[in-house]
Amino acid sequence: MENIQNLIKRLRKELARHNALYYDKNEPEISDGEYDALVRELERLEQEYPLFALSKSPTKKVSGYASSSFKPIKHAVPMLSLDNTYSHAEAASWYERIVKKFNNSNLEFVIEPKVDGVSASLTYLDGVLIVGATRGDGETGEDITENIKTIHDIPYKLKIENPPSFFEFRGEVYIDKSDFKKLNEKISYSDGQKFANPRNAASGSLRQKNPQITAERKLHFFVHSFGKIEEKYFKKQSEFLEYCQNCGFKLQSNFRICNSFEEMSKFMDIMLEKRGLLNYEIDGLVIKINSLKLQNELGSTNKSPRWAVAFKFPSKQATTKLIKIRSQLGRTGIITPSAILESAPLSGVTISHATLHNFEEIERLNVNEGDIVLIERAGDVIPKIVKVVRKESESFFKPPKNCPSCGSEVVKEKEVAYRCINPECPAQFRRHLIHFVSRNAMDIDGFGESVVDQLLEKKKLHKLSDIYHLSYDDFIKLELFKAKKANNLIKAIAESKKRPLSKLIFALGIRHIGEKVSEIVAKRFKTMEALFDVSLEDFSKVSEIGEVLALSLREFFENATARHVIEDLGLSGVNMTEPGTSKKVSQFEGRSFVLTGELEKYSREKASEIIKSLGGKVTSSVSKKTDYVLTGENAGSKLEKAKELDIKIIDEAEFEKLINIWYKI
Ligand code: IVH
Predict the structure, then answer these.
(1) Does 241 contact ligand 1 (Cβ within 6 A)?
(2) What is the whole-number distance in angstroms between the Cα of residue 114 and the centre of ligand 1?
(3) Which of 149, 282, 353, 492 is most buried, by the most CB atoms less than 10 A from its CB?
(4) What is the mean pLDDT of residues 359-370?
(5) pTM, two decimal places
(6) pLDDT reading at 239 higher than 50
(7) Residues 386, 317 contacting (CB under 8 angstroms)
(8) Is 114 a catalytic residue?
(9) What's the 443 CA to ligand 1 centre distance in angstroms?
(10) Is 125 helix (H, G, I), strand (E, B) or coil?
(11) Which helix (H) or strand (E) holds 397?
(12) Pocket of ligand 1 contains residue 317 by CB under 6 Å
């Protein structure tokens, strides 16, 4: 076995290499999840062997550094990182420690999305933006002032009277998912290197030598914390956030103030589920003590504050080897390539296949058999290959020029010009509202044209999701409304949140998309999150969907404004899945297995590994809590016990059937 000290050294060196790839080159070779796993492994070893722990280990300091291509900027107060937790239990034990420390179980916490972007510090002198800097190594960052000034969400002058003489605002620069997708498409058409994820795209765009390029990249910014401030005192994080809004910053609206872990836990579940609906990438949530006085009392380590913790979501990306590219002839005659991968675990499922959309995509990705690729699993869809992280192949993959069956040429499809498809465009808004609430759409009984007109006149409706935030007071003021009618309408609105995805698709008023097509689309793609990622080809592959409908659907779900409308509806509680076909949960999830006897094709270790990768667990003895007993040749007393306790017994063939369902998604 490798000597522990060497192993620790090797891990540190490996982490330093990945840090340079991530922060300096913007070309990571591994996913964030895999990087986190390396850090955790190092942390574990350093804890177990404190003799080898170093103060300058990557586990003890802020990772990243300021490159020499930009002028160095020393932060007035260091920019720290956050400690991570990966489960409710880990977050709960952080919470318990704080409660115990203050002997108070009624503390207020703010829980905010952890936007996956690039941290930046903005210094304002007397209310004017003077310097914008990256985090760098935490002490010194890079001067990116001119690039920061191109971001519309950042005010050049604070919109308040008597601004403090010195103010360091800290926040995250990020790019919307839909803009990221368009940027990558543009890059690959011009034969450039695609960005692995929105975070990389934001980082690359922010650290441009020419601010003109940054300006074209549609970057956004939201404030989450502060460094040094003079002549201004806040009592709470929530008060600080409100102040930022008054200063003219865009605020992250999806945050909550919670008084108990239970409340936080609920929000964690909601955000984990709704993560895919947001048009910006989040890699978790950040929990902070609201009181700044208590924050001060807790203070920070060299690396991270003790008053905050990140709750990280499972990674959507992983790296693996592409073993084979397979060409398949589809039902409608479309020939599609697909990738066979070396099995890799990804958000609780073992992945061994990925889509490649079409042959142009292979060319754009410059991918071939043998390469190490970054794969991503968004929503319920089959994972896709994001990019090649290490080229191992020498030749180019040659797509078949002709159909393998009839020999005719493969036809390429063209996209057409853009059109305004925003369902909240003012001129079309009234018409959209009336359609949205109508019987065949969201079916909100009592929400007729006159109600729509009156609410518009009273300026109560600015966007579709406002429907879900109307109150009794808003209705009781309308003509011919009494208590009963107002209450009934509120009930009908709440009821409409449960409509199936098909009704919602129809209600969104997508060009050419009627009731029938909405149903077909909902049944085929199951969740809204999945729809965001469906390519033109995949829409066209559905037999009832022709070119015009496919284009309309693809344009709509890719449009940033439409995505915002959906995001708001989702966060207002509107259902985004088709019943009966909702999220696939592996049959193994949370189930306990006992193995007995010898299997033909699998060793005991391999079978256990498969069960675990699908969310199940393996125990050694049969009890009432056992869900399945997997039996092979010469099964012994465990089989007898299982029969006695009436536990489901499966043989190798049944086991294979079960795993095949999950291995092939
Ligand atoms: S609070 C550490 N709040 O996550 C100082 N950070 O992994 C307090 N981040 O460098 C930071 N969203 O740039 C905070 N809502 C949020 C955040 C957030 C993203 C970033 C931040 C930090 C990194 C740590």
Answers:
(1) no
(2) 6
(3) 282
(4) 86
(5) 0.69
(6) yes
(7) yes
(8) yes
(9) 42
(10) strand
(11) none
(12) no
